[in-house]
Amino acid sequence: MAHVSATSDQLSRHQSSEASAPKYPLTDKVREALAISLRGVEELLPQEEWAAKLARSEATGVPLRIKLGLDPTAPDIHLGHTVVLNKMRQLQDLGHQVIFLIGDFTSTIGDPSGRNNTRPPLTREQIESNAKTYLAQASLVLDPARTEIRYNSEWSDPLGARGMIELAAKYTVARMMERNDFHDRFHAGTPISVHEFLYPLMQGYDSVALKADLELGGTDQKFNLLMGRTLQAEYGQEPQCVLTMPLLEGLDGVEKMSKSKNNYIGISEDANSMFAKLLSISDVLMWRYFTLLSFRSEAEIAALQAEIEAGRNPKDAKVMLASEITARFHGAAAAEAAHADFQHRARGGVPDNIPEVALTGAPLGIGALLKQSGLVASTSEVMRLIDGGGLRVDGGVVADKSLKLAAGTYVVQVGKRRFARITLAP
Questions:
Q1: Does the 5-245 domain belong in CATH 3.40.50.620?
Q2: What's the fold here for domain 271-346?
Q3: Motif range for 'KMSKS' region (predicted)?
Q4: Is 259 annotated as a binding residue?
Q5: Element (H, E) at 283
Q6: 356-425 maps to which CATH number?
Q7: pTM > 0.90: yes or no
Q8: What are the residue boundaries of the structural domains of the chain, listed by start?
Q9: CA gap 373, 356 in Å, rounded
Q10: Are the C-beta atoms of residues 397 and 387 closer than 8 Å to each other?
Q11: Digit-coded pLDDT (tens) for 87-146
């Protein structure tokens, strides 16, 4: 993550800004809003300032301005990308003004966050094409009617050379080099282009232009988010608070969700695939997905978790999660159809007469189970099947290569035509 001692300095320089502001009461409604703000977050800085902003907003009736900036660097989004968008929607539902900022200017620089080399800037044509897709996909999470859409070229292009020089004068090279990725690249002898120093400055200037009260981002954006606080203070504004969200684990429950790791759920995938993939996650990972992806309240999730701990089938909760997420991106009818398809595959969607296999050794790894049942010839074949989405257990696509099955009876499908009903004993 790109945060070091500069972050604490960026915070401490402006801690006194709230001290002289009028004090508003922290009502129950404010405390509830604060709890919603904190749900699933990595950090909320400074938390006391955010509570004060929420209290002021409730007392005055003036909504807070909440900013999320995304550079349109790729045309598609998976569920991991929606974690921050979900937080925006929660804050939007509290009545605040959310701003979806398209970084059409900053994309021409290239975000150096977490990079060990210079990121190639995008062409204008790539940016415009990707931006259209981002807006369409973001609208599946945010309420478009209550979302302010902005492009940072609005204020960045008019800056010109003189304005850019004046902006660059507000931050030192020494403080910029405290940033981990710049520090590491410098000491490794890896080139750092001068224009890369402009990226956090321009992202921070976005907060000045938008008069943001809060900016959201991933954990790797912490330095850039705090830059917004620094520059707002330089321009005489009340500094924004910053909120970072964690990275969502993929279907394997270990690595972060990523297309390259083939452990992702794309929001443009068909409803049946999305539903089945969500049902394939582990019972433990399910609660992480509920926290970061579901719009259910924490009280609802806690009650559901208590029911599972008391003996209710975890699959019931997983179906609820899969139904909610699939309906969000495909509609309620498609989610119901996907559930019906899953049930069909788990029950009547298999031939009447399939081999019956009895095995022992539960819990047994999926590779060993398939080899011992004679459904595959090698463990490598199992890995290829999982990579290609060609392995199902009880109708659900298996994505976790380290999956172990407990004692019980399972319908296993390999490819389109190979089936077996496997009874696994301890």
A1: yes
A2: Tyrosyl-Transfer RNA Synthetase (1.10.240)
A3: 256-260
A4: yes
A5: helix 283-293
A6: 3.10.290.10
A7: no
A8: 5-245, 271-346, 356-425
A9: 9
A10: no
A11: 999 999 999 999 999 988 888 776 655 554 555 667 788 888 888 888 888 888 999 999
